[in-house]
Structure formats: C-alpha cells, structure tokens
Amino acid sequence: MVRNPVRTISEHRPFRLDTVAAIVGLLLALALLPLRLLASQIYLNTVPIVLGTACALYLVCLYQQQRSSGHEQLALPSRITMALPAVVLVGLSGLVALTVLEGSRTVRFFGLASVVGTLLIGQIVFATDDDLNVRLLLLQIIAFAFVFRFTALYATPGYVGIDVWTHMALTEQIASEGAVSGISHDKHYASPFYHLLVVASSLVFDVSLRTALYLSLGVAMPLSVLLVYASTNLLVPQRWATLATALFAIASHVSMWGLHLIPTSMGLVFFLGLLYALLRVMRIEYAVRDFSLLLLMSVAVILTHQVSTFIMLVLLLAAFVAQLVFEIGPLGLTRLDTSVFRTKKPVNLIGLVVFNFGLTIFVWSLTPYREQSFLATVLSFFSQTVEESAGFLNIASGTTADEEAEEGAAEAATTLLDQAVPYIDTLGFLLLLGATFVGCLYIVHRRRAEQSVFTLLLASAFMLVFVLGFPMFGIHTFIPTRWFAFLYGPMAILAAIGLQTLHRNLSPRLLFTVLLLFVLIYPGAMVMAAESNIDNPVFDNQHERLAYDESELAAAESIGAMTGSPDGSEIRPDQRLYTDHPYQTLITRSGAYSATFTATVPDGESADHEYTVYRSAASSEAVYFQDADGEGRIEQVSQDRLCGPDQATVYTNGDVTMCTPGPG
After folding, report:
1. Residue 60 has pLDDT above 70, yes or no
2. Burial of 619 (0-12, 13-18, 19+ CB in 10 A)
3. Phi/psi zone of residue 179: left (φ > 0), alpha (ψ -120 to 50 degrees), beta?
4. Given a cut of 90, is residue 144 above it in pLDDT?
5. H or E element that contains 656
6. DSSP string, 148-193
7. Which H helix or E strand runs over 634?
8. What is the pLDDT of residue 582?
9. 453 Cβ contact list (under 8 Å, min separation 6)
C-alpha cells in the first residue's frame, strides 16, 4: 500500500506555514508547466522546473531526520583543504598569464576560471569547521574578482561596453569646463557622482580619465562584494556568509558591471551599502550613526543613477511592507525562535521611505531628458507601452533592438549548440534561484520570520516581477536587464540560507549529490554566461563583442577626423552613416559621427545606403543588421553586401573600410 506523502510529512513535521508554502509552490510549478505551450521563452521553460525542484527538496528536508554525522561525511580531508588555496592562487596566476600570452580572455581563460571558481566554492562548502579559514577564503574571492575583471580591462585597448563611451564623453566635458555645468544639457546633470568621481580621481592620481576610471570604480567593484559578506553575516554564520559572497562575486551580471563601468556599476556599490545598512538597523540596537549611514547610502544612489534609484525604492518598499506584516501581524508572525534569529521589534521605516520617494520625485522633476523632465518622460514611456504593446505573454513586444535580434537568432538556430546557448546563459541564474526558493521557504516559518529576512524575501519577489513578470506582458520600460546584478544581492543571501538549510537537514548522500552538482555547475555557468564575457564572447556566433581592437578604434577616430565630427543637426538624412551594431554605437558615442545607424541588409541582398562602414568582424562574428522589416538579427555580411560597386572607398586600414557615393 502506497502511503500518502503529504500525510507522511505531516507525521514528522506538523503543518506549518513553510510546509504549506512548499506544497503550494510545488502545485504552482506543476500548474505553470503548460505555459511553455503558449509561448516560447527561456524562463517559462525553466522557472517552473526550478521552483518545483526547490519545493520538493525542502519537503524532503522536512521528511528526513537531521543526521549529526552528515557534516563529517561531507568534509574534505584537512590536507586537501590546506592545499586548495595554493591551487587557487596558481590558477589565478594562470589566468593572468593566459591573458598576457593570448592578448584577450579566450575560451581557455574562461574554462580555467570555471575550475578556479569550483575549487573556491568547494572549499567553503566542504571544509570542516576547524579547517574553515574565512579570512583566507575572502582573500581568494577578492583576488578572483580582481583577476577576472582586470584581465579584461587590461586586454581591451578602449573601453568595454556601450554606454561607457557616452559617460566618458560627459566626464571629459566636466573636466574641460571644470564644473558640472558642462553636462547641463544631459539627464546626468542631476546625478553626476560617477562623472565627478572619475574627474576627481584623474586629478588626484594625475592620470588619464580612462586610468582614473579603473583605479576608482574599477577597484571599488571587486571590493564591494565584502558588503554582501557583512550583510549576510548579520543573519547566518561565517561559512554561509562567505558562500553568499562567493556566489555574488562570480555572478554573471555582477561581473559585467565590473567590466562595463558606468553609473549602474556605481549605483550597485551604493545599493549594496544600503542593503547592509538596512539589515544592520534591523538586526542590532542601532545608533544614530547606523541610521545616518542608511540615509547617506540612499541619497548617494539617487545622485548616481536613475535606474538604481528605482531599484532602491523597491527595496525600501519591501522593507516597509515587511514592517507592516510584523506590526499588523496578519499571519501571526510573532513567535520568533531566538536560536535562529534574534528577537527585535520591527524598525519604523516610514520616514525613510517618504523622504527617499520625495527626494527622488524632486530630483527627477528637475532632470532634463528629451526636452522635458526625466519623470515626465518615463511616465510617458510607461503609459505608451501599456496602451500600445502590453498584453499577457506578449514577450517580444517592446523589446530593444538587441533583444529582438537575440530572439531572432534563437529562432533561426539549427544546431544543438545554438539551441543550448540560451540555457547555458541562464543556468547560473536558475541554480541561484533554486537555492533562493529554498531559503525563502525556510524563513517563512513563524519561528524564523523576522523583518530583515522578510525584507530580503519581499525585495527578491518584487524585483523578480520587474525582471521576469513585466516582460511577459511586453513591458520593458524599467530596463529589466539592469536589475539582475541588484537582484543577485538579496538572492545570494537567501541562497546561502537555503543551502545552509539543506546542509543541516538532508541525508549525507542526497546532500553530497546536491552540493556537488551546485559546486561543479554554478561557477562555470556564471563564467560562461554572455554577461561575463562581453569583451570576447565564448559563443561568438551568438553574442556580440562589446570591445574593440586597435584598428577599429583607429578607424572611428579617422572617420571623425575626415568628417570633422559634425553635430547631428548638421547632418542631412541622406548623409547618415550605416554600419553594423554594435560598431555604430562606438562611432556615435565616441563623437566621431553623430548620425550613425544600424545598416539594413535584406536576406540574400545588399545594403542600399550611400555612406557605409564595413569591418571584418561583420564576416566572422555575431553582429546585428536590420532586415527588410526593420527588425534586428544576427547575420554575417561580406564587404560587397555593405559596400556596393557604385560606392567609392575613402578610408581603409585592412579591418575597417568606409564607403561613400562614387564620382558618378
């Protein structure tokens, strides 16, 4: 006779809020599975499976008895634990050597980085309590973060990314004017911390603006992961705080903002500081200086970046909702287990929330953006999106040209590798999400619930709505791709709590299988994801390269010199310059030629533009062109399809060629 599994669980653990949540989550995962038949989208195909697996593992935790010998059976021998830091150091040295010898971060680099990441996380998870050296582990994490990011910055002649060219141009204007008024025409006039930091660093260190950027924000990004450790250590022991730090440091989107150094990067640093200050005032008997730090971090975010500000407001809103939950007590969350989380009265955050919302509205109302205020423009964009393109499972609607091109490339995929690439790109996120689900289930127990952890749960849930929920309705106004790195902060903390839960309660054999799979897959998945290697993509037929070599930079500079770098208002429509994306962003944002656009190259035909620029990368790498319908897609184009026989070549350096109308 087969026993009812729900009844079996209830015999071992009476039904509680976490038990009910796990069962409901499992049923919800089963209910969401048919959505993959209605629309083709990576998260519709995977998130229900991840949710169901996480809930099933948690229910198994409730069913299985905790075994005191489990930790001993999972521990590495002391000799191996002592030797692994040296192996990691040798591996990091190898990463530096590979970059120097090969001139860029190649597939071999990312393969070795994956191994080093696995050894690093393996030390944290499998070391005994006696062999666990937190300081040494944190040193390895920081070293890995520095090496992984600065090797890319070292090997790239210019900058890595797209927006950085615009921001460095704004920084140059501030430096030349000697005042913020140099960018009074731009929306960053009201949020200039990034640009002022680079200018000040250039003056203090007496270096170029590019070097100043790397010595200031470039250094701050790897060091900022320590804020995750400080935040997590307020909730869990050092082992799991160290694990959360490693999970965050290796995360793909976090690595990307360490390469593409823009105000989003700086906003992430301040956001982590805000998260630490927020958890601190919730976990300790705080003084005025603690709340002052919280206020300072929130103002810093507002004066740094608009998207980061909105994300910060979501976090503060989550904290306020958590406060209401515990003050009103609709779920009876009043019986805290002091052995898990310290009992503390919820912190009143209404004043902080009102202040930040008010300051944000005030600053955004004064921020110039597209001939009106930033606030008015954003609200206009959002209302237009809702009216014109929003709809359930309207996934493609409202996407950017890059996203449309990626979707088009995915649909055209014919090989198994092409079909697997989107799943490889999201695998690390899905593993982290699964561990986060387990952590969320653990903290909803009435005796474990507390304002700080509920803030993390609600913040993650709200941010996932913006990242995964709104895009399903065709709403991309909030730029969901910018949210991931911020989301990884609370997710890393909750994931550490979730893995700690599995470590305590699963049987040794099942625990070993789960942790080993996580340790082996997570670092490699994050390192191989597209966001971690934008300077030189691992899958260069699927993802564009957002870094340029010397010849491509020289060509953009020469085009500017030949044309006189005219302003956009001085260029007639028939004088627009067309090339591939992302190269057109370099020419435009570097100021070489303001009116540069993505070329339209119909399938099997040639472009019909008078002024074009061709680079050899368009024939061998993933670059974007528009089709006859104006939709972007990845396509390799030869020179004769971009520069026609009736055009004349006015510039070439072997890699880049500029063509203009011929004498006829």
Report:
1. yes
2. middle
3. beta
4. yes
5. strand 656-661
6. HHHHHHHH-SS-SSSHHHHHHHHHHHHHHHTSGGGGTTSGGGG--H
7. strand 632-634
8. 95
9. 235, 341, 443, 494, 497
Distance CA 448, CA 454 (A): 10
- Residues composing the chain: 664
**Dihedral over Cα of 16, 21, 24, 29: its sign:** negative
**How much is the pLDDT for 332?**
47
CA atoms of 157 and 590, how far apart (whole Å):
14
Q: What Cα–Cα distance (Å) separates residue 86 from each residue in 79, 119, 224, 619?
A: 12, 11, 24, 43
Residues 6+ apart with CB under 8 A from 390: 397, 398, 473, 474, 475
Counting beta carbons within 10 angstroms of the beta carbon of residue 403, is it exposed (0 to 12), middle (13 to 18) or buried (19 or more)? middle
Residue with tokens 């009844």, as numbered in its chain: 7
Instruction: Provide the residue ranges of all domains of the chain, joining segments of one domain with +.
Output: 68-333+345-386+419-532, 549-661
Give the 3-state secondary structure of residue 325: helix
Q: Report the first-to-last Cα separation within the chain, whole angstroms.
A: 90
Highest mean pLDDT of the ranges 109-118, 569-578, 653-662: 109-118
SS3 for 69? coil
Tracing tokens 């090339």 back to the chain, one arrives at 579
Q: Return the structure tokens found at 659.
A: 């063509």
Residue 413: what pLDDT? 43
Helix H segments across 64-77?
70-74
Q: What distance in Å separates the CA atoms of residue 465 and residue 449, rounded to the nearest whole number?
A: 22
* pLDDT, position 155: 96
In angstroms, rounded to a whole number, what is the distance separating the alpha carbons of residues 86 and 88? 5
> What CA–CA distance (Å, rounded) separates 342 from 263?
36
The average confidence (pLDDT) of the chain is: 88
Backbone φ, ψ for residue 651 (5° rounding)? -155, 140
Please report, as a single letter, which amino acid is at residue 200: A
Q: What is the pLDDT of residue 398?
A: 40
Q: Give the integer Cα–Cα distance in Å for 614 and 656.
A: 6
Better-scored residue on pLDDT, 196 or 329? 196
Question: Any idea of the CA torsion for 610, 613, 617, 620, to the nearest 10 degrees?
Answer: 10
Cβ atoms of residues 232 and 245 within 8 Å: yes
Helices of type H across 506-611: 508-528, 550-563, 583-589
Q: What is the DSSP letter of 35?
A: G
Average pLDDT on 74-99 reads 94
| The model's pTM | 0.91
Give pLDDT, residue 368.
Answer: 78
Q: What number is the average pLDDT over the span 361-376?
A: 82
Instruction: Kindly state the average pLDDT of the residues 532-551.
Output: 94
Residue 354, pLDDT above cutoff 60: yes
E strands of 556-629, at which residues?
A: 577-579, 596-598, 611-615, 624-626
- The b-or-e profile of 222-257 (16+ CB within 10 A means b, else e) is bebbbbbbbbbbbbbebbbbbbbbbbbbbbbbbbbb
3-state secondary structure of 16: coil
User: Six-digit token pair at 141?
Assistant: 């994490």
Residue 437, classed as helix, strand or coil, is: helix
